[in-house]
Amino acid sequence: MQEQPLLDYIERYIDLTDSEKKILLSKVSSRKYLKGQYIVQQGDICKHSSYLISGCTKTSYLDKKGQEHIIMFAIEDWWTSDIGSFVTQTPADYNIQCIEDTEVIQFFYDNQEELLQDIPKLERLFRKMLEKALVASQKRIVRNFSLTAKERYLKFSELYPIMEQRVPQYMIASYLGITKEFLSRIKRQLANT
Amino acid sequence: MQEQPLLDYIERYIDLTDSEKKILLSKVSSRKYLKGQYIVQQGDICKHSSYLISGCTKTSYLDKKGQEHIIMFAIEDWWTSDIGSFVTQTPADYNIQCIEDTEVIQFFYDNQEELLQDIPKLERLFRKMLEKALVASQKRIVRNFSLTAKERYLKFSELYPIMEQRVPQYMIASYLGITKEFLSRIKRQLANT
DNA sequence: AAAAAAAGTTAAACTAGTTTACTATAATTT
DNA sequence: AAATTATAGTAAACTAGTTTAACTTTTTTT
Predict the structure, then answer these.
(1) Same domain, yes or no, for B132 and B170?
(2) I need a labelling partner for B52 at 20 to 30 A (CA). Which of A1, A84, A110, A175 fits?
(3) Chain A contact for B126, CB < 8 A?
């Protein structure tokens, strides 16, 4: 069953009965995107939160000067969404674009309340997922302030060694908040050591 | 009643019955800190989450080079905690220090499960609080990447006009990720316009 | 009210990271 | 297999923000 990874993910946080699993699966739906397609576009209302079965996405912000800033990547067994847009149903700040063919299972805003009523435990799941995401986000702020570009790059390689192989270098540079040219210089420096 | 602001805060997110309010208040406790005192110290296990009745705190990270990086401020009607430390009961990454005499109401890790069992609705409160915090944190990452120091300062003044009056300038500089000298230069530039 | 400590200002020299512009190498498409 | 497009590397000139070090102002303590 293609939904098994999602159930496994959830059971790391809470226990579900068989009937709860059935309800849950009846209220989510799976979808495939091709490389290059958008799951969410800046300005749209984000209607869903997506759990990745396979593939890879980038979440980015396009600023007034037309520059793209990558705020996160996601791969299989991660979640992605524009939470701000999802919870308030206001236009999304971010683009979520697939950088590989990607298969997801989606939770929809329109039946989220219903789902939470049927399985109140899910509040706890979402709380715990948000706790984890917030801690990671705060750590990233600190790293951006306290580390140099080279140190940030090394930390990224250490934290997400898989990403390095799957994501083009210029996107990693954007995630790190530096230019692709400077990341290239950093890599050369590291190689000559 | 000194706890009223906390109940008002909570009722912006969920409804509580009178008996739930009573249970809640029986499981939290209030405490006063003097200016300069620490609510949490880097390395300690964070045992509580604090709702501010009055006063002002700063949350900061001391890096290996001995530099302090302020990651957030809190004033009355805000929450503060090292959530990472609180939820996993591992040593705190951050210091939370009072920069004014501060009165708080604290939720404790040790009876949080009990409290959630008595008032399951609180899961939803915490989820919503975390959603809001995560959205703010992500926006901050984007601002740090897409704006210049001057633009970040102007945005800060716009978002938190009260902070500017209550917090010393060198702490604002740290929050913005720049030196106090450079913030001083920015303010002069803005004044001569 | 004096002394001391904390916070803020100024300016010159410096550096981490950007910009621009060109070249090289994959990876896709025809 | 050739042509196109996307990705990566290099280097010189530049700039936003840092460092250092001295000075001024404000706040707190005695």
Answers:
(1) no
(2) A84
(3) yes
Nearest to A71 among B65, B131, B142 (CB): B142
Please name the residues between 27 and 66 in chain B that touch chain A, using a CB distance below 8 Å: 61, 63-65
B128, part of any domain: yes
Which residues are within 8 A (CB) of B38 and not within 5 positions of it... i.e. 6 or more apart? B95, B96, B97, B98
Residues 52-111 in A having a C-beta less than 7 A from any atom of strand D are: none
Q: CA A88 → CA A84, A109, A158, B103, B148, distances in Å?
A: 6, 10, 35, 32, 29
In a domain, A82, yes or no: yes
Interchain CB contact of B142 with A (< 8 Å): yes
Return the SS3 of B67: coil
Q: Nearest-CA residue to the C1' of C18?
A: A179
Interface contact A130-B130, CB threshold 8 A: yes
Do residue B184 and residue B154 come from a single domain? Answer: yes
What does the pLDDT average to over B133-157?
A: 97
Which of B137, B158, B175 represents a domain boundary (last residue)? B137
Written as one letter, the residue type at A80 is T
d(CA B182, CA B191): 14
Domain with B76, as residue range(s), is 4-137
CATH of the domain at A65: 2.60.120.10
What is the 3-class SS of B104-155, one letter each residue?
EEEEEHHHHHHHHHHCCHHHHHHHHHHHHHHHHHHHHHHHHHHCCHHHHHHH
* Residue A46 within any structural domain of the chain: yes
Residue B142 lies in a domain: no
pLDDT at A33 (0 to 100): 95
Q: Does A133 touch chain B (CB under 8 A)?
A: yes
* Residue B1 pLDDT greater than 90, yes or no: no
The string of pLDDT tens digits covering residues A132-190 is: 999 999 999 999 999 999 999 999 999 999 999 999 999 999 999 999 999 999 999 99
Domain count, chain A: 1
Which of strand D's nucleotides are less than 7 A from any protein C-beta? Answer: 6-12, 16-21
Q: Per the structure block, which two tokens stand in for B17?
A: 């019955």
Q: Give the tokens for residue B172.
A: 């604002």
Q: Is B167 in a helix, a strand, or coil?
A: coil
B25 with B78, same domain: the answer is yes
